[in-house]
Specification:
Oligomer: single chain
Distance between the termini: 16 Å
Helix content: 25-40%
Shape: globular
Strand content: 5-15%
C-alpha cells in the first residue's frame, strides 16, 4: 500500500490485515520501490494513490511491473481516472478505485485481484 495520507494508509493496512492479507505500507513511492526491489517476486498486489508527491502512482506501478510482470495493481484517487490512458503494456494490469470508498469496496477490489489471502 502506497499513499502519502498517513491516516488513510494506517487504516487500510489495519483493514486488509484483518482480512488476512500481509500488508506492507509506505508513505512515499521511492520507499516502496526500494522495498520492492529487494524481492519483487514476493509482492502480489500494489495499491497506490495516483497522486503520490514523489512519483505518480501509475509510474510507480509501471516501474514495478517491469520487475514483476505478474504483479497486480490497484490505483486509487479522489479524481476520476481512466485506465485506458495508461501505456498499452499496462492497460490490462491495474484496476481503479475512486476515493472515498467504503471498506467493502476495497475488499471487493482486492478479492477480485487476489482471490486468496496469503
Amino acid at each position: 500500500m502506497v499513499d502519502d495520507e498517513t491516516a488513510l494508509l494506517q487504516l487500510i493496512e489495519k483493514y486488509l490485515t484483518r482480512l488476512g492479507y500481509d500488508v506492507e505500507s509506505h508513505s512515499t513511492a521511492h520507499a516502496a520501490l526500494r522495498s520492492f526491489a529487494v524481492a519483487p517476486e514476493s509482492w502480489r498486489l500494489v495499491i497506490a494513490d495516483l497522486r503520490i508527491p514523489d512519483l505518480p502512482g501509475q509510474e510507480l506501478l509501471h516501474r514495478m511491473f517491469l520487475l514483476n510482470p505478474q504483479l497486480r495493481g490497484l490505483l486509487c484517487s479522489g479524481t476520476p481516472f481512466d485506465v485506458s490512458t495508461l501505456p498499452p503494456v499496462m492497460r490490462t494490469q491495474p484496476a481503479f478505485l475512486q476515493k472515498p470508498f467504503l471498506p467493502s469496496m476495497l475488499s471487493d477490489a482486492v478479492k477480485a485481484l487476489l482471490p486468496q489471502p496469503q
